[in-house]
């Protein structure tokens, strides 16, 4: 009995193709949205407010959380294999990690194309803060912490842990939902 | 009531709780740094526009997500907490729930587009409610996967028990 279960587990197709496909697609989408938003900030007039480009943000909202669902859909269709909820969650988590890695790699590559982007974003944010109506001392303090915050944002380790937490957890949930929606009937018996 | 896959249920519960607490932002913990650079805002920066005028505020700071996203996360958490109770309404087929879910996603999209085109003006609360429905509905898909009610009686079971007693 145990042997046959072991054999079944061994026969289960690998998740990695589905994880890689969904991770790559949603990683590129998440990176593109981030890039458009970054250049929108750079090119925006300093108004002294926090209102960034709304349309891009609204359309991009939550998009990257659906990688897990795409991965489970791909897995279920490609291999016609049953998926348990736990497997769906795992596929989603791995997809979230993959999205984070793709986003970071593309971000590093973009620095070769436009090495000044981060500095331009810092300058645009500082210009925006300088247009704010607040006491000079408080403004300076705000500018210092903003510059420090943006530099911290640029570090790979920081991007990795925030990305894995956000994309990892949300894609884990959507992966599980995907397993429930797209998983074959046989999955019910293995739960 | 019987429970199944208990570790997975509690893992999701803890993660959903973490997501909601993070989404509430730094104001909840009285953090002092500029809110855009709080770790809560950083975590959701790729997932939500985080526009302060479209978010609820706590202690003078906007939450880390907009009101619609807050609705999605709190709706999911509320549904997940209620999952044991939902097991009494176990759906034999997930397709009705799928249809409702698709409908709610479409209503949310319609609300976004209608607001962008100026047909109507949605509010923080209307977005929260629509988001809440979008977060809560997928949980219905899992009714019966983690908890099953023992109260269900089937005629064939009664017959079998009666026969056994007779022997």
Description:
The complex is a heterodimer of chains A (191) and B (167). With 191 residues, chain A is mainly α. Chain A contains nine helices and no strands. Chain A has helices at 2-11, 16-43, 54-60, 67-79, 85-113, 117-130, 136-153, 156-182, 187-190. Chain A starts with a helix and ends with a helix. Chain B is built from seven helices and four strands. In chain B, a hairpin with a 2-residue loop joins β2 (57-58) and β3. The A-B interface holds A 30, 33-34, 50-52, 54-58, 60-65, 85-86, 89, 103, 142, 145-146, 148-150, 152-153, 158, 162-163, 165-167, 169-170, 172-173, 176-177, 180-181, 191 and B 4-5, 8, 11-12, 15-16, 18-19, 22, 33-34, 36-37, 39, 42-53, 66, 68-69, 72, 76, 94, 98, 112, 116, 138, 141-142, 145.
Task: Give a concise summary.
The complex is a heterodimer of chains A (191) and B (167). By secondary structure, chain A is an all-alpha fold.
What distinguishing features does this structure have?
heterodimer; A: 191 residues; mainly alpha; 79% helix; elongated; B: 167 residues; two-stranded antiparallel ribbon; 4 strands; 56% helix; flat
Shape of chain B: flat
Strand content of chain A: under 5%
Which quaternary structure do these chains form? Answer: heterodimer
Largest sheet of chain B, described in full?
2 strands, antiparallel
Q: What is the β-strand count of chain B?
A: 4
Largest interface: A-B, 44 and 40 residues
Structural class of chain B: mainly alpha
Helix content of chain B: 55-70%
What portion of residues of chain A is helical?
over 70%
Compute the number of helices of chain A.
9
**pLDDT < 50 stretches of chain B:** none
Largest sheet: number of strands, sense, barrel closure of chain A: none
Fraction of residues in β-strands of chain B:
under 5%
**Dominant shape of chain A:** elongated
* H/E series of chain A: HHHHHHHHH
Order of helices and strands of chain B: EHHEEHHHHEH
The termini of chain A sit apart by: 17 Å
